[in-house]
Amino acid sequence: MPGRLFHLTGGTTARSKVVRYDPGRWARSVAVKRKIFHAHGVDENARVAVCHPFGLWSIGQVHVEGALACHADVYPIGLSALSPEPLQHLIDARPTHLCGGARHLLQLADLAAKLERPLANRGMQAIFAAGEPLTSGVRAACAAAWGAPVFDVYGTAEFDALGAELPKSPSMRLVNDFEFGVHSGNGVHALSAGATGSLCVRADEHTAWFDTRDLICVVDTDGPSGFGAGIHIRGRKDFAVSLPDGSAISELQVSRLVAETPSLASAQLHVVHQGSTVELHLLYVPHPLSEVNADALSDRVRDINVDVADSVRAGVVRRIQLRSLADEGLYFNTARGKRPLIVVVE
Q: Counting CB atoms within 10 angstroms of each CB, which of 148, 201, 228, 325 has the fewest?
């Protein structure tokens, strides 16, 4: 029996987990990454820098091997470029393609600015962002700093990459290496245009469905060669915070609040416990082209769901406080660099 590889990984999940790879499963993950890179023109003329961690928390090596399978030159920089000398080597390599968490790449751009080493207009063709939800504000800032379009790569800790944005596709495009379905309350159904629910995935018909808990809308089911359905990811359904009176706020509701408020680029809700009551603190980055109406935004937080509005009237929610931030780097992040939509402060 061949040996197995055990990765301690986080993906976009709140807690770490152990993911087991055998040679066949590892080869499939590399092949999927190669296909995504190839669709973006990565070939023997490309120089690919990988700024994902290689251990303990992520499988950056699959990016390296996927790019090598495209015959590209590869620079496994990891997280080391957050210090001047490795960043100089990264800049001198003049990569044509860059892989990393978008917010981490923004940190590198800030350091490059301090070193007076411009990043834009250096032949960068594409940035592959993975490992965290990609907000419109972070996407735009990262693209401007590095001078290249940013493409979202979608996956889970359990399966690695499941899809990606493609150069000529307006939606996230799933790969055809897995079977996908959508769970809508009465079982898992085949993907069809217009279907909504949580995305489910399995290796083949002989394995059990895995619910990603990502809420999607299916745009279409016919993709280019090697790819299948196009989807829009609307949020997650797996995390909610209970208030002292039993009411709750979910991450999906916070995500919807941001999506439905044009004046917000992003937001993070802090639930601050004070004995038998709480305060709700909404930290937000305003959209640069819109003006925030504080009273209206406070009302939106109060009405984020019916239960919370009742909790406000009952005095369980003592106060709703708004705090504008200059940039998204000021949000609370976990020890592994993930940014939750809801933070509980005891």
A: 325
Contact of 267 with 254, CB cutoff 8 Å: yes
Edge-to-edge order in the sheet of strand 196-202: 73-76, 47-50, 97-100, 126-129, 150-156, 160-165, 172-175, 227-236, 210-220, 196-202, 179-183, 188-190
* The pLDDT value given to residue 324: 95
Residue pLDDT, tens place only, 274-326: 877 889 999 999 998 889 999 999 999 999 988 888 889 888 899 999 999 98
Query: What confidence tens digit (pLDDT) does each residue in 104-142 have?
Result: 898 899 899 998 888 877 889 999 998 777 877 788 889
Q: Residue 83's domain is classified under what CATH number?
A: 3.40.50.12780
Q: Are residues 144 and 29 in the same domain?
A: yes
Domain boundary among 109, 139, 167: 167
- Distance between CA atoms of 312 and 245, rounded to whole angstroms? 11
Count of Cβ atoms closer than 10 Å to residue 232 Cβ: 13
| Distance between CA atoms of residues 80 and 10, nearest Å | 19
Give first-to-last CA distance, the chain, whole Å.
Answer: 49
CA 15: distance to chain centroid?
15
3-class secondary-structure state, position 332: coil
DSSP structure string for 203-254: SSTTS--EEEEEEEEEEES--STTEEEEEEEEEESS-EEE-TTS-EEEHHHH
Least Cα distance to 162 among 45, 52, 43, 33 occurs for 33
Distance CA 195, CA 216 (A): 8
283 vs 280: CA distance, rounded Å: 10
